[in-house]
Design brief:
Elements lengths: L1 H12 L6 E6 L2 E7 L2 H4 L6 H9 L8 E5 L5 H9 L4 E4 L9 H6 L3 E4 L3 H13 L1 H7 L3
Parallel strand pairs: 3-4, 4-5
Antiparallel strand pairs: 1-2, 1-3
Helix pairs in contact: 6-7
Length: about 140
């Protein structure tokens, strides 16, 4: 999770939305990414999507775990379900409840760490840039 948090901080430093993600397979780092919607003017480049894009073609995802600083939205959750990623570990879901039930209904194990660093980072961002946050979540 610390690597995902670092990705989120780097994204914020670039003027983006502080959400980071890391993909691990068989205990080894495969890829990391961050929300780059602002930086690359790409509406679907959420943290998980950037991470999976950076992973490239890895074959089966059955032995992977994806870490995200925030509960995945339905777009990212759909990709997780499509690729049959069996486990998602999230930093927090207080600031955004996301698609936990959707993933669980498709057999994905979802672990919410309720991490105070992740909560504080998103709370500060949402308070400082509500218009950008609302754009990100489609409000």
């Amino acid at each position: 999770m610390q690597m995902a948090i670092q990705e989120a901080k780097e994204g914020a430093a670039e003027g983006g939305i502080p959400i980071g993600s890391v993909l691990v397979k068989n205990g080894e780092l495969v890829a990391k990414g961050r929300n780059k919607r602002v930086q690359e003017q790409n509406p679907i480049l959420h943290g998980e999507m950037d991470c999976l894009n950076n992973a490239g073609r890895i074959g089966s995802y059955k032995d992977t775990v994806i870490y995200s600083t925030l509960m995945p939205c339905y777009m990212c959750a759909g990709t997780i379900v499509q690729f049959k990623i069996p486990k998602v570990i999230v930093g927090e879901s207080q600031t955004f409840s996301g698609a936990k039930e959707f993933m669980e209904s498709h057999g994905v194990e979802v672990i919410d760490l309720n991490n105070s660093d992740c909560i504080d980072m998103m709370t500060q961002f949402i308070n400082e840039k509500p218009e950008l946050w609302n754009e990100d979540i489609g409000e």
